[in-house]
């Protein structure tokens, strides 16, 4: 009897090992998913990088002689609607860097040990907003004719897959491609097998993208999907004839007075950049992206990004197909996040673990936050209004 049980357990174990072997052979990236799990600030170093060189004559923000440390005591909410002093909010969210710039002057900054405003950090989905900027520039140059162009116009290699037949660049920008994609929600096993994990850890993005399936007709249903952005950047590379890092460097980064190198992570050497989540930059230079959009696409009197593209990006029309989040009713538009509630006009680029670039034109304020997890909610409006001497109260 004991031997039979032993043989049975051995058989089940052998079958389990066999299934795992088959799974890892079919999806080799799962070994990296299992090993590294949720990406951290240093995970991008597992992959090749292409660097983005800074400007020859960088722009420098002024640093205030006395920082506004009174900000530490104002009350904000965390994700559980718990009220706390901002100093405690920083601790609760494991926030490593928080910097506030107003009227081109740094008026508040806090760094954890090992962090500074000039250290290279991965920004996760903040990268998606960079793709939006590049797309606007490519349209201005005529490299891309219109957002309503079909994806296959720029990536004819995908013609063999009918899932791409009707998809336009606009569908991708609005995350309404209708392509099948699973996020990390649904538990540990679901996250392990998710498309989100697959596309982060794969070493062949084009191969995986080529196999995508349609879940819905394009243009109908919004779903947050990294693959839509990756397809956009693939189309950008084909349209411009330049790699993502080169195009970003020559048309954006150098033209905004960046002082430090940035980088894009590739799936393999000379491969496709993971433009959905693998962009690295310093806090002080990321703030200059905010400054560019704060100034309607201009830097030193030169129009870097078309003013109308900036306006389209940060002023959204009502679209009931796109869900909102939080008391501020934030929703996505052109790969930026725009609050809709109250006195609005502010906007943000957001990344996993609490990476943030927040811009408030009303108060001429830029906020950069780097975190290990983030404390949630949306304290940025209250901070920008408080430091500008304007009243603000959270809604009931």
Describe this entry's structure for a reader.
Helices cover 34% and strands 17% of the residues. It has 396 residues and is of the alpha+beta class. Strands 2-6-5-16-15-14 form a 6-stranded mixed sheet, with helices on both faces. It has a 4-stranded antiparallel sheet with strand order 1-8-9-7. Strand 10 and strand 11 (302-303) form a beta hairpin. The longest helix has 25 residues, at 2-26. The protein starts with a helix and ends in a 9-residue tail after the last helix.
Short description:
It is built from 14 helices and 16 strands. With 396 residues, the protein is α+β, with helices and mostly antiparallel strands. Helix 4 (126-141) runs parallel beside helix 10.
Order of helices and strands: HHEEEEHEEEHHHHHHHHEEHEEHEEEEEH
Number of helices: 14
DSSP summary, beta strand count: 16
> What is the average per-residue confidence, as pLDDT, rounded to a whole number?
91
Beta-strand percentage range: 15-25%
Strands of the widest sheet, in order across it, are 2-6-5-16-15-14
List its salient traits.
alpha+beta; globular; six-stranded mixed sheet; about 400 residues
List the helices and strands and how they pair.
Blueprint: H1 2-26, H2 29-36, E1 49-52, E2 62-63, E3 75-77, E4 83-85, H3 86-92, E5 95-102, E6 105-111, E7 121-122, H4 126-141, H5 151-154, H6 169-173, H7 188-192, H8 195-201, H9 205-210, H10 226-240, H11 244-251, E8 262-265, E9 279-281, H12 283-294, E10 298-299, E11 302-303, H13 307-314, E12 330-333, E13 336-339, E14 347-351, E15 355-360, E16 365-371, H14 380-387
Parallel strand pairs: 2-6
Antiparallel strand pairs: 1-8, 3-4, 5-6, 5-16, 7-9, 8-9, 10-11, 12-13, 14-15, 15-16
């Amino acid at each position: 009897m004991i031997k039979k049980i032993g043989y049975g357990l051995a058989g089940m174990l052998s079958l389990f090992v066999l299934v795992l072997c088959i799974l890892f052979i079919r999806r080799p990236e799962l070994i990296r998913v299992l090993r590294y799990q949720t990406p951290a600030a240093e995970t991008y170093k597992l992959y090749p990088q292409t660097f983005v060189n800074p400007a020859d004559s960088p722009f420098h923000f002024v640093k205030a002689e006395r920082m506004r440390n009174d900000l530490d005591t104002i009350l904000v909410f965390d994700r559980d609607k718990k009220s706390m002093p901002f100093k405690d909010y920083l601790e609760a969210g494991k926030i490593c860097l928080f910097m506030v710039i107003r009227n081109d002057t740094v008026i508040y900054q806090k760094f954890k040990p090992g962090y500074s405003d000039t250290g290279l950090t991965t920004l996760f989905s903040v990268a998606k907003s960079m793709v939006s900027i590049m797309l606007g520039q490519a349209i201005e140059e005529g490299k891309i004719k219109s957002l309503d162009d079909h994806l296959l116009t720029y990536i004819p290699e995908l013609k063999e897959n009918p899932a791409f037949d009707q998809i336009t660049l606009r569908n991708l920008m609005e995350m309404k491609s209708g392509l099948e994609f699973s996020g990390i929600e649904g538990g540990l096993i679901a996250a392990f097998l998710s498309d989100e994990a697959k596309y982060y850890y794969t070493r062949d993005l084009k191969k995986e993208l080529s196999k995508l399936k349609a879940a819905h007709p394009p243009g109908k249903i919004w779903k947050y999907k990294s693959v839509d952005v990756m397809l956009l950047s693939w189309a950008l590379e084909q349209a411009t004839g330049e790699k993502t890092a080169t195009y970003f460097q020559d048309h954006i980064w150098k033209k905004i007075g960046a002082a430090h190198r940035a980088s894009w992570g590739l799936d393999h050497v000379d491969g496709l950049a993971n433009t959905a989540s693998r962009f690295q930059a310093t806090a002080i230079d990321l703030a200059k992206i905010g400054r560019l959009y704060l100034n309607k696409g201009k830097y030193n009197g030169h129009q870097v990004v078309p003013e109308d593209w900036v306006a389209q990006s940060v002023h959204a029309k009502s679209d009931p197909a796109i869900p909102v989040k939080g008391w501020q009713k934030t929703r996505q538009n052109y790969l930026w996040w725009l609050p809709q509630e109250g006195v609005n006009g502010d906007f943000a680029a957001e990344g996993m673990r609490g990476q943030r670039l927040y811009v408030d034109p009303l108060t001429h304020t830029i906020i950069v936050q780097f975190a290990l997890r983030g404390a949630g909610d949306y304290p940025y409006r209250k901070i920008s209004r408080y430091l500008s001497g304007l009243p603000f109260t959270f809604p009931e």
